[in-house]
Amino acid sequence: MGRKPCCDKVGLKKGPWSAEEDQKLINFILTNGQCSWRALPKLAGLLRCGKSCRLRWTNYLRPDLKRGLLSEYEEQMVIDLHAQLGNRWSKIASHLFGRTDNEIKNHWNTHVKKKLKKMGIDPLTHKPLSTINITSEPQEQKIDKSSMELPETSLNSTITEAKEEEKSMKITCPLLNQTMETTTTTTININGFCTKEVSLIEPHEILVTSTINSAPSPTSSSCYSSKLIEEFEFHDLEWLIDYNTSSDDNGNINNLGLWDDDFDAWGNLLSDRPKLANDSDSFSSPQIQCPTRLPFDQEYSWIYT
DNA sequence: AAAATCCTCAACCGCGTACAG
DNA sequence: ACTGTACGCGGTTGAGGATTT
């Protein structure tokens, strides 16, 4: 006996969502918040299953989504995180604000895989496709770099940075948070990221590649570089966060509560004027200035003024 | 210009897991 | 402990647009 379907599929619509359906879903969630996905379609007047609604919302309609191609830094982060986490797209997505697991998975399958293969790297193992026995034959680690016709990519610029750094000091394998001696480890570094297998690390331990050029904060191990932070200037969103109330013991921002059950933040979203950080009637809930440029303002819009 | 092929990505499917009763 | 239900995740599909022949 098979699994019971998540919902009664008879008479339910499948396939691409229409603008009208999107609008219904948005209106419902903005008004009522996210309740049970199973119950939502009926309540919202949609002929869709709850699963489809959830997917549509999380992958396309959420107002905090970034659209468009992944930047070079985002792509590098995906590669590094994939080396650590494997195909755990959701975990990877959680490190990239405004990106969904589906988006990252698609990008990986359509772009990154090819790119890595072209560079001679196995996208599954993140190891060189060529068979080089690193441990038993250290002399073989030397690669004739001039023979490697790698395309000029962000990865290669990272490689350049890393190699320059190698000249004078130990380098830190960024995502693995490991320091490696600059001896005969060129094989490992040539690919722009470490291929050494290590146990999983916690997200806050992850260092991005560009930390090579910017010293990490001595008080925090979650040291995304300023360069990366710049990359994460959310062009579509402006978040005003009350840092006085939103840091945990490690200084991590932890109350971006737009999706909290109580939907305080949605109250702001729906208010005539977004609350500002210096408003006199300050409140303890997250102070978020909600998006004024939302994902789809071409065909139809849910911008409110 | 038309047909064939390739590519992208939104959406679906099914499984694993969490949780309530 | 067991069962049923709902949700979330990762793999896969296929429509439609882009590119090539």
UniProtKB/TrEMBL annotation:
Claim: Repeat is one of the keywords in the record: yes
Keyword vocabulary terms for this entry: DNA-binding, Nucleus, Repeat
SUPFAM superfamilies, per the entry: Homeodomain-like
Myb-like domain residues: 9-61, 62-112
Stored CDD domains: SANT
Gene3D superfamilies: Homeodomain-like
Coiled coil: none
UniProt xrefs under SMART domains: SANT
Keyword Repeat: yes
Localization annotation: Nucleus
Main localization, broad class: nucleus
A Pfam match: Myb_DNA-binding
Residues in HTH myb-type domain copies: 9-61, 62-116
The name this protein goes by in its record: Uncharacterized protein
